[in-house]
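Q: Structure for this?
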Amino acid sequence: MPGPLLEIRAARRSFTTPEGRDFAALDGIDLRVEDGEFVTLLGPSGCGKTTLLRAIAGFEQIDDGVIRLDGADIGPLPPHRRPVNTVFQSYALFPHMSVARNVGYALEVRGVARKSREAAVTEALAKVGLAQFGARRPAQLSGGQRQRVALARAIVAQPRLLLLDEPLSALDRNLRQQMQIELKDLQNRLGIAFVFVTHDQEEALTMSDRIVVMRAGRIEQAGPPREIFRAPKSRFVAEFIGETNLLPAVVRATVGGMAELSLEGGQVLHARADSLRPGAKVVAVLRPTDLAPAEQGLAGIVRRVIYLGADLHLRVEPEGGGGEIGVILRDAGRVPAQGERIVLGYDPARVHVMEAGA
Amino acid sequence: MTHRQRVQLFLLLTPVTVFLGVFFLIPLGTIAVYSLLTPGLYGGVEWSFYHWNYGRIFGWADGITEVFEPVYLHILLRSLGLAAATVAICLVLCYPVAFWVAGLAPRWRMLFLFLITLPFFASLIVRLYAWLLLLKPSGLLNTVLMGLGVITEPLDILYTPVAVILGMVYIFLPFMFLPLFASIDTLDRSLIEASGDLGARPVQTLLKVVLPMTVPGIVAGGVIVFIPAVGNFIVPDVLGGAKGLMTGNLIEQQFLSSRNWPFGSALAMVIMALVLGVLLVFSNRARRAGGRT
């Protein structure tokens, strides 16, 4: 079986801040990317995701560790000798060149003959839906069009791996959602592996085959979007990916794959979970969208009602105390009133339990 | 434009218009008129039309009172060549430094910009005489080189074109540096990264991205150095000796020693026309180079 396309082992990189302190941007990163895979590096600013991307591209050197591409150590290679291309956050289109020359640049500098260069440029522009725009200047294009030119320019030389540094962050919301889908389609058609950097969890969930959540230079959790969303390994991941309720609890008993948890206020929460010790301190992760009014469940008082059109957000104070619980109702047949008593039902299989302190 | 805006504009533009009119246009017009008048016997001018001033330079002298001397054209061309060499050397020296300074942290960059302008704080003449002391046969340069055993005989640099070019480059370096720096400083560094990322070797990045994008700075620096360099007479005077006569010295001599004001004026007009011609060609080329895809 062939090895992974990209393999990073124990990568470390530290910077010295202007105040003279050492700061580890990458603190022991292990990462594998398979051929054709769409991997997203997700995390807040300063978590090291951009540094990791720049280390793969060759703009940053790592102090320690190995970066292999197709089994070959590319660590010592300068950027222009790595078969990897980047879509920059600012697009970095050459303003003094036409769109066509921008797109053909990678072939031009490799000395590809004009004829085959033009054919490849036409094809790349067609792939991003800008076939008619070759003669224009970047300044004559809209933000979304520039974005596509940057994409076409990065794929024209058929890199082994495409790196994307928050490429959608400068676009407005509608265009961003449209580009997310187009980007994923393009990646499927090209079959090139993408490493995509973002701080936007929705982008990550929409497009990725695998999400790598980073925090303070380390990988917090890596896995398919559903796993990251449904089974976060830590409080940080749970809070970073979407709205969530984190309820501290103690395991009372486990019977046949079902655990009985005692919440802080004394109410009981059931969760489908194996291998929990009675008496262990845990945190129950409950998504606001997984709660709905029912006959049985968690009882509480509605403290606040926020109407958002399609959604209805509730803040419910559980009976017996404990922190407020957020609830998102998709289809509110009857809008609960403030101060009303409510019972929230849930599916125990959708309650995720993680260790306290994680 | 409202009446109020018009009044404001008038008030703002009047001082500079008056200043330029009095101290630039009138003297320029005077020189243009003088260049077509008869030289007075003891300096000054006689008010009658006289085209031999230009004839002496370009070759239609009458051969009796005014003689055609190709040496004037030679000196003009030599001045243009010297100015061009000064521009070229300043550019080559400044470009990498400007690039480096633009990449520094703000604190250090301020220090270096200050250092670049430091020579302006001392008198030009004093600085040129310092060069005289450096370059003379028993000067610092020769003493050090001979002490190190690099040379056995003192180098005969002073009063040669090499000395003049050294002095010119020294004087005009800051004038090249500042516009270059301003241009390079605004260059988006991610373009350089993008070029490398797409497979361009550093030399290709320089030729295809960095240089074309900093053409405005190169043109500005070139023009700002070239114009005063053509007419400069102090450097050739101090460091060039008798053989290093340049247009600036020639014009100075006509006004001060020879007291032939019309001929000096004609020389000044010719050099101005040449400089304008060179600049037109140059800026047209640059615009076309910048506008190419």
